[in-house]
Design brief:
The chain is an alpha+beta fold. The chain has a domain of 53 residues. It is built from two helices and two strands, in the order H-H-E-E. A two-stranded antiparallel sheet has the order 1-2. The relative contact order is 0.19.
Length: 77
């Protein structure tokens, strides 16, 4: 039975994401979409900053090895 299909298996160069170890744990637990959400007591400027940061994060991407190189297998959004 087919469980999934790879549409495009290419490797791409992407900027390294600089997450804290706590953010990395949350992403690996599958709760990455909870990060960088605006909270009630945030100012309008803080809300914009968090929305901007969230739009630049790909929480579904995973790192893999190709030969001796570490590469990010980015997802199509």
């Amino acid at each position: 039975m087919n469980q999934g299909v790879i549409i495009d298996g290419s490797f791409v160069e992407v900027p390294r994401q600089r997450n804290t170890s706590e953010e990395n744990r949350t992403i690996k637990e599958g709760r990455g979409n909870e990060l960088w959400n605006a909270e009630e007591d945030d100012t309008e400027e803080d809300r914009k900053k968090k929305a901007n940061k969230r739009s630049h994060k790909d929480t579904d991407a995973r790192w893999t090895k190709k030969g001796v190189w570490s590469m990010c297998s980015a997802t199509a959004s």
